[in-house]
Amino acid sequence: MATIKDVAQLAGVAVTTVSRVLNNKGYISKETREKVNEAMERLNYQPNEVARSLYRKKSNIIGLIIPDVSHPFFAKLANYVEYYAYKNGYKILLCNSYRDKAKEKDYINMLKRNQVDGIIMGSHTLETAEYSKQKLPIITFDRNLSGNIPFITSDNYKGGTLATKLLIKKGCKKLAHISGTLELNTPANKRYNAFMDIVKEQDIDFVVKQTKLDTFENYIKLVRNMFEEHPDIDGIFASSDMIAASIIQVANSIGKEITKDLKIVGYDDIDLASLIVPRITTIRQPLKEMGKMSVKLLIDQIDGKEVKTENILPIELIERQTT
Q1: What angle is formed at CA 71 by the lines to CA 70 and CA 74, rounded to 5 degrees?
Q2: How far, in Å, CA of 196 to CA of 205, rounded?
Q3: Averaged pLDDT, 140-149
Q4: Relative to the CA of 323, which of 20, 170, 221, 250 has its CA 20 to 30 Å away?
Q5: Assigned CATH class of 156-285
Q6: Cα–Cα dist 278/300, whole Å
Q7: Structural domain spans, the chain
């Protein structure tokens, strides 16, 4: 295997010159740079990235931890994060936590050992203290961990308000909200808060069910049980489009006609929402902008710039066939 000394010898330059070319440090003439690059190509020389990152005190690698890469929301988010990271000269190490505390902590330690420059956190399993003691720059999605860790979210309260008011406007008399887990104090809980404020204010009969990030099969089981307990539900605000899709499947199997017997509003506006039949009315989160902003905020932190802690992006009601 070729070494940096072999490259220097073939190019007829000093080892320090090759190092400066690799790390883009100091002035190097165009002719010298071309000679070094040609020598590296002829020798198939592969620089030691760990050594380079130690020399530069920067790896240009970002860690991204998400709960489930197979979930359409997080898959699309990861896609945007990778795209904008690469555009800005960074690569991604993708970690799949599966909502496992031990696995999430293990990934954080692995990212630190691999000298990543910062972490974008989409998984929220560990306690706040675990993040607060990290010395790496961190950006989180939908989790306000502490006053000094920036987070990105959408306007969840407005989203919950628009969804609930639309169902009432469409004539629904008994509403259900299927929320994410409310155990953690996350900005996404404001969807539930908005739902509760409106149904109480307008004296609407309601049901609330909680679910963790889960499989489609488990969503179907939860929805089926809910209809067995409350067959008179005629409007549902689901906290994700995946849950909304499971409601459609259950409704079809038990003979509830959408929109005559049941109206549904989802959340996120993943691709599934416009592909399934009937197409899902939903609250659109600006996933592209969220991915772009997360990369920008993290790079700003890495570069020592001050960034806002709270970053709330606007949502949009997309009305389709389920209302």
Answers
A1: 105
A2: 11
A3: 79
A4: 221
A5: alpha beta
A6: 43
A7: 4-47, 61-153+287-311, 156-285
96: helix, coil or strand? strand
Give 106-175 as a DSSP string: HHHHHHHHTT-SEEEE----S-HHHHHT--S-EEEES----TTS-EEEE-HHHHHHHHHHHHHHTT-SEE
b (16+ CB within 10 A) / e for 112-141: eeeebbbbbbbbbbbeeeebeebebbbbbb
Give the residue with greater pLDDT, 42 vs 290. Answer: 290
Question: Which residue type sits at 167?
Answer: L
Where is pLDDT greater, at 305 or 180?
A: 305
**CATH number belonging to domain 4-47:** 1.10.260.40
**Tokens standing for residue 172:** 């629904």
Q: Tell me: pLDDT of 307 over 60.
A: yes
Q: What is the architecture of the domain spanning 61-153+287-311?
A: 3-Layer(aba) Sandwich (3.40)
- Residue of higher predicted confidence among 285 and 51: 285
| pLDDT tens digits for range 66-83 | 988 888 899 999 999 999
Compute CA 139 distance to the chain's CA centroid, rounded to the nearest angstrom. 11
Residue 263 backbone phi and psi in degrees, to 5: -120, 145
Is the pLDDT reported for residue 229 higher than 70?
yes
Assigned token pair, 57: 């005190």
Domain 4-47 matches domain 61-153+287-311 at the CATH topology level: no
- Spatial neighbors of 4 by CB under 8 A, at least 6 apart, are 15, 18, 19, 22, 45, 47
Secondary structure of residue 93 in the 3-state scheme: strand
Q: What is the CA radius of gyration of the chain?
A: 25
Q: What is the reported pTM?
A: 0.81
Integer CA distances (angstroms), 275 to 74, 131, 144, 221, 238, in order: 18, 38, 33, 23, 17
The mean of the pLDDT values for the chain is 88
161-193 confidence digits (pLDDT tens) = 999 999 999 999 999 999 988 877 788 899 999
Residue 284 and residue 108: Cα distance in Å, rounded? 30
